[in-house]
Design goal:
Length: 128
């Protein structure tokens, strides 16, 4: 695959993922409010689940075309999930003296992320 095609796949995937993140985060915030950064939590969990599913599917069921992995895994999911926003929101909670919420946000993001990858693996195993 030539470099131009790789850049195009990353760009298209990134466009899709960043738009999904924007709309999902807004939708979740409208529903649950902004007491805790629920939108970031949801997109990180969703992205972790999809990546877990994609990687396990590629390892256990059928080989996934490298172009699809680049488009979805690196491009879309790289733009959908956001460690930097999670970090920023957590530091802001600490700056606002919301220490419990800051610590809760850390544990929820890590716990949901790891659990989501595991659930993606488990779904592939149950379908195979």
């Amino acid at each position: 695959m030539n470099m131009f095609k790789k850049i195009l796949l990353l760009g298209v995937g990134g466009f899709i993922g960043s738009n999904l993140r924007y709309w999902i985060t807004g939708w979740i915030t409208d529903i649950f409010g902004s007491y805790l950064p629920y939108g970031t939590l949801v997109v990180n969990g969703l992205g972790s689940f999809i990546l877990g599913f994609l990687m396990m599917y590629g390892a256990e069921v059928a080989e996934i075309d490298p172009q699809i992995r680049l488009l979805i895994g690196t491009g879309m999911l790289g733009a959908l999930t956001t460690f930097s926003t999670f970090s920023y929101e957590t530091i802001n909670l600490f700056r606002e003296s919301s220490y419990f919420l800051g610590i809760l946000n850390i544990f929820l993001n890590i716990g949901i992320g790891l659990t989501s990858v595991w659930l993606g693996f488990a779904l592939v195993k149950s379908l195979a």
